[in-house]
Amino acid sequence: MKYVLEYPSELPAASEAFLRPDVMREVVAAAEAAGFSAVALSEHPAPSVKWRRNGGHNTLDPIAALSFMAGVTARIRLLTNLYVLPFRNPYLSAKALGSLDLVSGGRLIAGVGAGYLRAEFAALGVEHERRAALLDESLAALRQIWTDPETPVRGGDFAAPGPLWLQRPAQRPHPPIWLGGNGPPALRRVVRHGDGWMPIIADAAMAAAMRTSAIETPEQFGAGVTTLRRKLAAADRDPDSVDVQVVCPHLDFGDADTVRAAEAYLDDLEKRGATWAVVHVDGSSPEAAVRFVRRFGEVVITAR
Length: 304
Prior knowledge:
This protein is an alpha/beta fold and 304 residues long. The protein has eleven helices and nine strands. The protein has helices at 21-34, 49-53, 62-71, 90-103, 118-124, 131-147, 184-193, 204-209, 218-234, 256-271, 286-301, and strands at 2-6, 38-41, 77-80, 83-84, 108-113, 177-180, 196-198, 243-247, 276-279. The chain has an eight-stranded parallel beta barrel, surrounded by five helices. Helix 4 (90-103) links the parallel strand 4 (83-84) and strand 5. Helix 3 (62-71) packs parallel to helix 4 (90-103). The longest helix has 17 residues, at 131-147.
């Protein structure tokens, strides 16, 4: 099992101090030293006030923030969780994500998805109802642009008129592409385009809010992994080549029971096919976050 630090600004009650560059530097450096394998940021370029007041969080542009974090670290990987491909032209996505991979020396994990906030799509001038079709188009285009940048790519709303001069990402054939979503369409996309799957184990209400199918129990998660592995094998792909990310449950290092419960839960999910876990730390202050990161490294990462 590898561990991803969800940068604390992603927490609804996180201090705005996490948006400061000195704090970003301190937190991500602590995560790298503690043994975290990646740091993650989501994407919300135009979230509504309603979303923020109902459990949303502060947001940074993930390309800008992860590029900064790349410059103050040496090894930790940089995960977009998630970068919403339907928000933009695939060439813009390929350029932004590929540039992050280049400036980080090949540390990008491109976590991508369809997005779900209707108001955000409206603010950006993208039809919410087209998001699934746009995601499929963008995934195919992204891989082609990265692996064969000179050849023009055309889609429903864009068309390169001739050969292009574009830089390839540092990783070959391209950075790992991880896909979010719980339902059959998400599994289909992972099989066709993906190097990782990022399901959400949550109740039906939360799944509905995120416009995806519900995976409510470890047993349902395990069944999903089994289905994915069967589909990968049928497509002549190695099932072991695809990572599966889950979310680490809440734990309180002052309460040994929550630590044991979280470790048991992760052990169970690992046996069912999980290879990475996203960790939410104490976001009450930068100092609390760094303490949590260091303690997690000692108690969980090193021990496991």
